[in-house]
Predict the structure.
Amino acid sequence: MAAGAGASRRGRLAQIFRFALVGGVNTGTFFGCYLLLHPWMPYFAAYSLAFLLSMVGSFFLNTYFTYRTRPTWKKFALFPLTNVTNYLVQSVGLYALVTWAGMDDRIAPLVAAVVAIPFTYLISQRILVPRGAGADAEDSGPGSETDERQPSRLA
């Protein structure tokens, strides 16, 4: 294997690890916000607001930390597609695991969530990483040349 391919593979694995780490932080942020908001409002309003707050946090963590790219308004507008993708894959997976595979419905959501990770990763990468950068965005931090093409920035 060529040295460049090995570095690219390591960069991709590091990016996937950061993506999973952000997912864990995002889940904790969501749950913490939900618990803080719940005493002050109905549970579904607390859930929705916590979901939106954690999604905004996830956007910034994924742009700066996971993919090391600059946030833009366009990326921000498209980012909810990652959550829709995650929800759809998890929902179909949950149904299939419980109905067709006979898995315990208390465990199946966790398995479905793990199955959804690669799909969510690919969609978020497609939205947040400038075309042609791929895992090479690893070396291009905020303000790098690969992202200078982005006209409108959030930060």
Summary: The mean pLDDT is 85.
